[in-house]
Amino acid sequence: MTTSTSRSPSRLPPSSSSSSLSRTETLSLFSLTFACVAVLANTFQGDGEPLIASLALSGVAFAASFAMIRWLGPTLMKAGLKGTDMSKHNRREMPECMGGIAAVVYLLVIIVFIPFPFYKDIVAATSGGGNRDVVVSVVEGVERGRLLHKFPHSKLASYLSAIISLQSITLLGIGDDLFDIRWRHKFFIPAFASIPLLVVYFVDFGVTSIVVPIPLQPYLGELVNVGVLYYVYMASVAIFSPNSINILAGINGIEVAQSIVVAVLLAINDCLYLLTPYPHPATDSHLFSLYFLLPFLGVSGALLWHNWYPARVFVGDTYCYFAGMVFVVVSILGHFSKTLILLLMPQIFNFCYSVPQLFGLVPCPRHRLPRFNARTGLLEPSVTPWTRERQPRGVVAWGLKVLGGLRLLGVTVDEEGRFVETTNFTILNLWLVWRGPLREDRLAMEITGMQMVVGLFGLFVRHGLAQLVFKEDNWSIGAAGV
Amino acid sequence: MTTSTSRSPSRLPPSSSSSSLSRTETLSLFSLTFACVAVLANTFQGDGEPLIASLALSGVAFAASFAMIRWLGPTLMKAGLKGTDMSKHNRREMPECMGGIAAVVYLLVIIVFIPFPFYKDIVAATSGGGNRDVVVSVVEGVERGRLLHKFPHSKLASYLSAIISLQSITLLGIGDDLFDIRWRHKFFIPAFASIPLLVVYFVDFGVTSIVVPIPLQPYLGELVNVGVLYYVYMASVAIFSPNSINILAGINGIEVAQSIVVAVLLAINDCLYLLTPYPHPATDSHLFSLYFLLPFLGVSGALLWHNWYPARVFVGDTYCYFAGMVFVVVSILGHFSKTLILLLMPQIFNFCYSVPQLFGLVPCPRHRLPRFNARTGLLEPSVTPWTRERQPRGVVAWGLKVLGGLRLLGVTVDEEGRFVETTNFTILNLWLVWRGPLREDRLAMEITGMQMVVGLFGLFVRHGLAQLVFKEDNWSIGAAGV
C-alpha cells in the first residue's frame, strides 16, 4: 500500500499547468488521429463495417477531447467555471465542468457516425418545392443479412432519440454547473432528459409487456402487459443511474473511473452477444449499445487523464449526468436495463447507505467527501460531530450503534457512552473506515477495483442464474448453454 | 412619427424590474395554460388532431417561457450572463442570453409533441433481455388517409434530426454567449449544428436531384443530380440563415421581431398548401413545418414581450442562431429552402451591404449599432470617422462617393472634399440615413414592417412566377391556378 505523505509532483507532465499540449502529446494525438482516420477511410473500401468505424471514431474522440480539455481550460475559468481542490496542500483553482466538453465531442462523433450503421432505402428527386417529385427507385440498399452489418432503417429513430436525450442531459447539466441548482431540483434533471427517449420509445416501439419468470407463469401467464408502469420503471432507471453516479463523487478521478468500469462491463456484456456463432435476435441491440459505449470510452479516457490524481480539471455534474444517461439509453433501447442495475450495485449500495443523511435522519453537512489530513497527506473518513446537547435518539441512536458494531460506520463515543462523532454515510468514507487512511489515488483505485469485481460477479450471476428463472438466457440461444 | 425625447416609463408594468409576475400576469398566464391544456386533453377524445395539439402546446410554450424569462433573470445575472443597454439614459444591467431559456422551453415542447403526429405501428413484448420476444401484432395503427392527420412513421427520423440540430445550435449558442467566441469562429457554429440535419437527410432521404427549369430542360433534361453540391447548398443555407439574423441586431426587439415576421410568413406559406381542396403531395412537408413554427412563435412572443423597447432582457446570440436554425430545418426538410431565401431578403441585403466592413475594406468598429443621442433620446446613424491621415483611397473612395450620391450611405466631407465620416454599413443605419433620427422602438417597428412587406411580396413572386419557369407551382396542383 502506497501511503507516501506528500504529493508526487513527478507525475505531472511538464505542461500540466499550461493549457498547451507538450510535443510528445501533440505527436501522440496526431499519430492516433491519423491512424484512426486511415482506418475510417479504409472502411469505405469495403461495406463500411460500422464496428470498425466506431472504434476508429472513438480514437478520434479521445484525441479531440484530450486536446480540447487542455486548450479550453483558461476559457472555462474566465467564464467562472472553476473550483478548488479541497484535498490538496495547495488549493489552486482548476477549470470545472470539463465533462461538458467531453460530452460535446461525444455528441459530434456519434452524429457523424450515423451513416455507417444506417443505409438509405429510397432514392428520389425534389424540385425543392416541398415534395418528392419523382421517386426514382424505391428500395436500393436492402438489408444484406450479414452479421455486424447495417441496421434496418427503423432503428434510426431509436438512435436519434438517444442522441436527443444525451444532448438534453448535457444542456441541463451545463445549466446545473452554471447556476448551482438546488439538490431537490437537480434530482429531476435526468427525468427531463429521459423524456425524448421515452416518447420515441412510445411511438416507435411501444412494448410494455414483460416475460413472466417460469415459477410465476402458472398464475400470470407467459406475458404480462404492465402498461404505463413500464414507463414509470424506465423513468426510474433514467433518474437513478445519473444521480447515483453523481453522488459517488468527491475525490479525483472517481466519477470518470467508475463510469469507465460500468461502460467496459456493458461492452463486455455486449460482446458476449456478438460472439455467438450465428445471428442472435439480440445482436442488433448489443451492436447498437457498443456504438454508444465505444466513443464514450474514448472521451472518458481523455477526461480521466486530466482528472486522475492529482487532478488538473474537474468534470462537473455534467459528466456524471451524461455518463449515467449513456448507460440509460443503451440499456433501455437494448432492453437490458436489469443488467445495468446489476452493474450499478456499488452505486445502489452508496445510495441506500446515504439515505439516513439524504433524508435528514442524521445531520448532513454540505460536503461529505473524505477529510484531507494535511499532515499525513492522506484521506480520512469525514465525520458528523454530535454535541452533548444534540444526541441521536431512539431508533437512530440504536441504528448508529448497530452499524458501528457491524463495522458499517465509524462511531466514536465518549466514556459516558455519548456519541462524539460518526462518519458520513458514503461508500468512500466506509471504505476508509475499513482500510484506514489512504492516499486519494489509492482510494480511487480501490473503489474502482471493487466496482470492477462486483460488476464481473454481477455479469456472471446474470448469465448463470437467468436460465433458472426464464426459459433460456438471452445469449445462450446461440451459444447453447455456454 | 413619434419622436418623444425621453423614455416612456409608463410602458413598464409595475413588476418590470422585479423577477416575479404581477397578479394580472399570473392570472392571464394561468388562464392561457388552463385553456390550452383543456384543448390538448380534448384532442385525445377524437383522433388526436396534431395541428390543434400543436396550437395548444404553443400556448403553453408562451406561458412557460414568459414565466421562466421573468423568474430566471436574477439567476442568469448571478452566473455572469448580463449586459448593458447602450441606447438608454440609465445604463442598467440586464440578464443576457434569455434566448437560451426560450430555446429550452421550445425543445421540451417539441419533444412532448412527438406522439401527436406519429403513430406506432408495431406492438410487441420484451423480456427485458435484449430482444423482442414476441411480436404480437404487426401493424396496428395504419395511416388513415385523412388530411391533416398522422404522419407515416418514416418521417419520425427527419423530425428527430431537426430536434438534434436545434439542440446543437442551442448548446453551441450558449457556449458562444458564455465564452465570447471570436467572430471568425462563431460564423461556423451553424455549420456544426447543421451536421445532424444533413447526415440524417443523407441516410434517410438522400435526394440530391433537382428539377430543371423549363427553359433549360432541352439542355439538361428534366432532372439533374447535383450530388454533393446539394449538401454544400444546404450547408450554405444553414450557415447563412442564423448568421444573417445575428448581424441584423443591436436595437431592442429587432432580433425577435424579424424572426417572428419570417416565421409568420413561412406559416402563411404553409397554410396555402393546407387550404388546397384535396391532399397535395407537399401537404405533409408543410404540416411538418407548422409543427415547428407554431411553438417557435409561442416562445418568441414571450421573449419579445420582455425584449421590446425598453428591453428588460437581452436575447443573446443563442436566440439569433436558434431562430435562424428553426427556419433552416423547416425549409430544408420541407424542401422549400428557395422560399426561405426569398423571405430573408432584408437580411441578405444587410449582409451584402455589410461586406465592405466585414471584409475590412472600410474600418469596422466593435459595435456598429445606431448611436444613441442622449440629448434628444433618439437613435442616429453611427459613423466610422476618417482622419486627415487615414483617408479611403482609389476604388473605396469612389465607392463611398457613389453610395453617398445614391443616398445608400451617409457621407460627410469637409470643405476640401476629404471624408470626415461615413455611416456604418448596416441596414439600421441606412434606414436612419433615409428617415432621420428615430426613437428605438420606432426604428424597430419600421424595419419589422419593411421585412413584412418585402416578405409578402416575396411570397407573391414565388407563387406567381414559379409557374413560368417550372411546369406548375407546387400548390397550384391542388388549387388549380389560384
Automatic annotation (TrEMBL), chains A, B:
It is a multi-pass membrane protein. InterPro entries: Glycosyl_transferase_4 (IPR000715), GPT (IPR033895). Pathway: Protein modification; protein glycosylation. It is found in: Endoplasmic reticulum membrane. Keywords: Endoplasmic reticulum, Glycosyltransferase, Magnesium, Membrane, Metal-binding, Transferase, Transmembrane, Transmembrane helix. GO terms for molecular function: UDP-N-acetylglucosamine-dolichyl-phosphate N-acetylglucosaminephosphotransferase activity. Its EC number is 2.7.8.15. It is an enzyme of class 2 (transferase). Pfam families: Glycos_transf_4. Its main location: endoplasmic reticulum. Residues 1-21 are annotated as: Disordered. It catalyses: a di-trans,poly-cis-dolichyl phosphate + UDP-N-acetyl-alpha-D-glucosamine = an N-acetyl-alpha-D-glucosaminyl-diphospho-di-trans,poly-cis-dolichol + UMP. The keyword Transcription regulation does not apply. The chain crosses the membrane at residues 51-73, 94-116, 156-175, 187-216, 228-249, 256-275, 287-306, 318-336. Its cofactor is Mg(2+). PANTHER family: UDP-N-ACETYLGLUCOSAMINE--DOLICHYL-PHOSPHATE N-ACETYLGLUCOSAMINEPHOSPHOTRANSFERASE. UDP-N-acetylglucosamine--dolichyl-phosphate N-acetylglucosaminephosphotransferase that operates in the biosynthetic pathway of dolichol-linked oligosaccharides, the glycan precursors employed in protein asparagine (N)-glycosylation. The assembly of dolichol-linked oligosaccharides begins on the cytosolic side of the endoplasmic reticulum membrane and finishes in its lumen. The sequential addition of sugars to dolichol pyrophosphate produces dolichol-linked oligosaccharides containing fourteen sugars, including two GlcNAcs, nine mannoses and three glucoses. Belongs to the glycosyltransferase 4 family. This is UDP-N-acetylglucosamine--dolichyl-phosphate N-acetylglucosaminephosphotransferase. The gene is ALG7_2.
